Amino acid sequence: MSQKGISFRLNAHITTIAIIIIASIVYVNYYFGSKILISKIEEGAINQSNLVISKISRITVGTEEIANNVSHQALYFNQHNDLIFLLQKVLESNQIIESIHVELLDAKSGKLMKFSSNKPGQLICLSDSLINNLNDFQKLKSGNSSRQIGEWSNPYYCKYDTSHLIVSYKSPIYIPDSEIIAGAVTCVVSLKMMRQMLSEIKIGEKGYAFIIDRSGTFLTHPKSEWILTKNLLEKASPIFDGNIKTIETAIRNGGRGAGHGISEYLQNQKSWFYFAPLENSVWSVIIVIPEKELFREIDVIFKIILWGSILGILILFFVNMFVFKRLLEPLARVTDAIQRFSSVPGKERKSKNEIKMLAESLEDWQAKYGVLINERNKTASEKVKFEKDIKMAREIQQNIFPSGYPAFPEYPEIDLYAAIKPAESIGGDLYDYFFIDRQHLLIAIGDVSGKGIPASLFMAIASTLIKNKAKVLSSKEIITRVNRELSDRNANQYFLTLFLGVLDLTTGIMDYCNAAHNFPYILHPDGSIHALSKSHGLPLGIYANKTYRSSSVQLSFGDVIIFYTDGVINSRDSSGIHYGIEKLENNILSLIDLNAQEVVSNLLTNISIYEGENRQSDDITLMALKFLRETKNQA
Q: Please, are residues 82 and 90 in contact by the beta-carbon 8 Å criterion?
């Protein structure tokens, strides 16, 4: 896009921002609007489902009322020999009952009398569970209830027509004003009729309903081969795609619920479902509606908003394109004029971006002018560049050294401070301190032979190698490894004097190795000092296979170790006399009870006063470490 004109690029940026804003608004509106719409849609679907359930419940409630009414009148009509007449009249006035069966115990003979009536053309089908003796009803009694109102049977096929699935409701007949059972009334209902009623109820375009018992077995279903052969609550469920246990518990307990799942009957379409119990039964009705159909209104609204937004963005794009071209036409003319004036022979510009073309033309123009200026001021510019490079090199070198005070505020047991003062812009001295692990602190100070940029580069390599090789807690091993690397890379024959120590903060013991460096001093709290005067080998960078030794020293609470480079003792006054070891020791004795920063600052001030106006001849580096922990040996 950078090769396009500025009008196109501005238009593209504005259009992109517009797309983001519009998309955000559309998303927010769709997100919250869909929640409200989905809630209303599901509420409407639940209301429709409740109407379906209400229609089916009329069958179960009506059947129970018929059976209970007949059981109350059976003894009376039997005494007048009109029981069959009663049953026929009941069948004629009720479409939901296929047949009625009455069993009565004759009080005189003790025999069981059976009366049956069925609609014309219907077979008389009795369940194997019909009572064979009146004591069957006694086991139905439970709790404090003395009378049993009746029960529904499990679905069963008529033995005369194995394709005819029926269910029956059985109600006991009691002798008036007693709890003695005299018989039972059984009303038979066809599940085929329930299935037909469900299929006639319009549930959207592809929605459907079915009945299951509390165990999940299909009692009705549009797919007839599933009836009594498939269970909704099995693991491979044809509809539920969620927490089967929660749904199973709700259905078994006769609860209501809704959710989303996959309908096998609808070719695995994502569907919404609702279930509720049928009144006065142990069955539940489940209604299934495809989500695509249920949420069609939301999809239509979203598509209208989406296409409307796309159309608006396209209109915005082309309108902006026209406006920007008109507004930026003067810029294009100016750019063309400058380009012709500053053109370079043989250089072809393919970009149509006016800003880029203008910038390139100005660059060419500036280049032409710069050639003339450079020829006149070549020496001056090279000097400025050199000074700039030196300044940058100094900043880089200063960034190599750790800084800040206190150095480790999270470690109150150590007080550490260091300062470096190069003789030139950049120098060859180095110092470093860092923790190898949480217990061991590495301290290093060194001096590279020579001064200037080459010495500083050698110093930077050495500093990097110290960090890379500090994987062990042995000072001599670290120095040995650093020496080997430096010697292999030392084409200019530089060398480095180095003092490196590893301090154990828990014990106060410092393991150190001195490779021909100036001896550090320890200032004790009682005002005495002593030098760590052991040397363990040659400077680094001379012999690659050189091995080094090490020593150790026990630090006590309040001890201050003072490290320095030879620039300290080689400082001269106006008469050319060196600062020297003796003057350094005398000054150290006066630094008792000071913190690390004060120790270093006092020494630097004293050296500066000693030098006066005399020019510094060598790099000066000072570092002080004050140990502030009681060790076990001291305790």
A: no
